[in-house]
Amino acid sequence: MILQCAKHCLDLSTPKIMGILNITPDSFSDGGSYLQEGRISLDLVLKRAEQMLAEGADILDVGGESTRPGAAIVSEQEELDRVIPVVEALVQKLGALVSVDTSTASVIEESAQKGAGIINDVRALMRDGALGAAAKTGLPICLMHMQGQPHNMQDAPRYEDVIVEVSEFLQQRINACSAAGITKERILIDPGFGFGKTLAHNLALLARLPELAALGAPILVGLSRKSLLGQLLNRGVDERLPGSLALALAAAERGAAIIRVHDVAATKDVLSVRSALINSAIKIHS
Ligand code: 8Y4
Fold first, then answer.
1. Is residue 237 lining ligand 1, measured as CB closer than 6 Å?
2. Backbone angles phi, psi at 18, to 5 degrees
3. CB-CB neighbours of 35 under 10 Å
4. Partners of residue 269 on adjacent β-strands
5. What is the phi/psi pair of residue 101, to 5°?
């Protein structure tokens, strides 16, 4: 399966790596790392982006809004000011395939004009104007499931059957996209690990990830350094690399097409070992 992302063709027959580029001054994990004298430095962002591409990132995911519970609310203008210059630079200077982590109609439109290749929306195009804006871009869209809103999503997540409810939500959003003129070939789906889910919900979703494939769209997952690893291993956010790699491999084994990560080089090694094993098994030995 090949996904057409602006000028880039993304071959999803083997799992692809999406590197995280947070353009937020207050991000949970790697936030603040591109700040110079309190301002986001385009040079530092470009340096990190070049490094991730050299390490094997297939996509760079640029986000200007933190969805961490308690994070500051970002105005539309602030999000535009953060994200658009970065998208432009990554496309123009590095020729990168850029996905834009946004729920905002104007950011979707302007990012596409600057050459972004994928829209990644944790609110699944439910904000005012987002569905129409995304439809007009012609770009692939990642629809993610979230229960509640970032400020309250982890208060007391509850499901009758987490797999069924996540599947039904994603199917509804696929239908909404279809009605807005976004064809099935442009849609990616994501169960939204950590977005209104307990540890048990997250583990059930990963264990049963193959069931989401029935929706007929490639699956994107974001598990890197997330708090399920804190709960599972009692480790701080900087101590979650081995756990993140185990989750990335588990997701790849269960059919994930795109894996969103902080640690590109290490994830690339894991996926290279996996593909060597797969290729060995299908070769004819004489
Ligand atoms: C430590 C590290 C603690 C990371 C929290 C976090 C996803 C996503 C995010 C995801 C898609 C995050 C933008 C949350 N997660 N997009 N975005 N899927 N498609 N938290 O799972 O990384 S941000």
1. yes
2. -105, 115
3. 13
4. none
5. -85, 95
